[in-house]
Write a structure and sequence with these properties.
By secondary structure, the protein is mainly β. It is built from 2 helices and 6 strands. It has a single domain, classed as Nucleic acid-binding proteins (OB fold (Dihydrolipoamide Acetyltransferase, E2P), Beta Barrel). The protein has helices spanning about 55-65, 115, and strands spanning about 5-10, 20, 25-40, 45-55, 70-85, 90-100. It has a 5-stranded mixed β-barrel.
């Protein structure tokens, strides 16, 4: 059997690079993934899935992505059991990412939508007249 998960979703928290005692970089983040079906109200629900990435991929994720960006995560499901402060037995699930693909570029918070849109006719003056009379 093989433990493999592929998810496409949006980063739902601010990314923070952390280091282990042995100085290994890692980043734990939550991925908002839409379900493939709708609920009884006709709305698509979202699952929030905890993921962790290690090493250079963690450093790159923090540098090049941010909350709200769409990414693809491939990895495996890790399950751990623990006892909470009240003595209750709990189970935690985490996707251990071994491949992350960026589906959007990191957006610069200082630019507006208009600044990000390039005008292919900007060099030709204020307006460009297009005569569509030949279509008649």
């Amino acid at each position: 059997m093989y433990n493999k998960i592929t998810l496409i979703g949006r980063i739902s928290n601010d990314l923070e690079l952390r280091y282990t005692n042995s100085n290994k970089p890692n980043c734990r983040f939550c991925l908002a993934v839409n379900r493939t079906y709708t609920n009884v109200e006709g709305e698509r629900e979202t699952d929030f899935i905890t993921c962790r990435v290690w090493g250079k991929q963690a450093e790159n994720l923090v540098e090049y992505q941010k909350k709200g960006n769409l990414i693809l995560v491939e990895g495996s499901l890790a399950v751990s059991n623990y006892e909470d402060a009240e003595g209750n037995r709990r189970t935690a699930y985490e996707v251990m990412a071994n491949n992350i693909q960026y589906l959007e570029k990191k957006k610069d918070e200082t630019t507006t939508k208009e600044e990000n849109t390039s005008d292919p006719f900007a060099e030709y003056g204020e307006t460009v007249e297009i005569d569509d009379g030949f279509l008649d």
